TrEMBL record:
Superkingdom of the organism of origin: Bacteria
Species assigned in the record: Sediminibacterium goheungense
All copies of domain UspA, residue ranges: 4-149
Record protein name field: Nucleotide-binding universal stress UspA family protein
SUPFAM superfamilies named in the record: Adenine nucleotide alpha hydrolases-like
Amino acid sequence: MATFKNILIPVDSLYNAQIAAEKALELADSADTTLFLVATIRFDSLSQKLLYTSIPFQKKTYLERKEAFILKKLEALKERIHRISSLTKTETMIITETTISDNLLLYAQDKNIDLVIATKEKYRQGFSFFRKDIAEDLARKANLAVLTVTKGCLNHPIKTIVLPVTSFVPERKIEMALAFARQFNAHIHLITMLDNNDISTKIRIDAFYLTYKILAESGHSPQYKILHGSDSDSALVRYANQVKADMILVNPEKKKILPVFFHGKITDMIQPFSALHILTLKPYLRRSI
């Protein structure tokens, strides 16, 4: 069973945070789980943070007012959670961040967070790509599992899981896919994408075969498919839609020096009321095949 005891819910929009919290209650054992409701006050630069937090007049008119507004949201969310599940423990926190700080990451590590549940953000484009993506940061830097959901994921069982394989055996994805498969009696669809112009084709095939073998030896015989063409998020989402998948397991995107202005992430491709869960996992250190 996929057991999560410390779940972090980033709180920006109260509506979206409620969706994430309700999904957390569906997945976790309510009596043995703590939900960490964390709101972040973001500053575009350190100088902006100093301006709004160090000068008494500015602090009174900006930061304290903002904190008071956020506290109301956190209390409203906390009350809603306790109405649904009185046994579930909650903790609230307000964290300030700049473009170069990692306070939320440090908080997650301190609280031993084992899952982050976030809602799909609006499609980012243009200069909004320069803004820090909190969920992606936590997956990549803090090595946390991040589940991205929409309202359509609520009260929707996970019955079909897509597990993509690239050039290595994805041990962490395998562990998580098996855990969800056992918990929800779900089927795993194992896929890889081969490009005739890719010199790593043999490596991908070997990794695909070994992944199938590990799943079979673990008591789960997956359905499998080899797709031809370039490895892309759009191809992955198309396949997931074809098999009516409820979950895709993906790796976090690599950090880019410059943002790609007209190319979104896989979570940007999900429709607002889709029932498709996206679970982002940083892989374990790779082993040779």
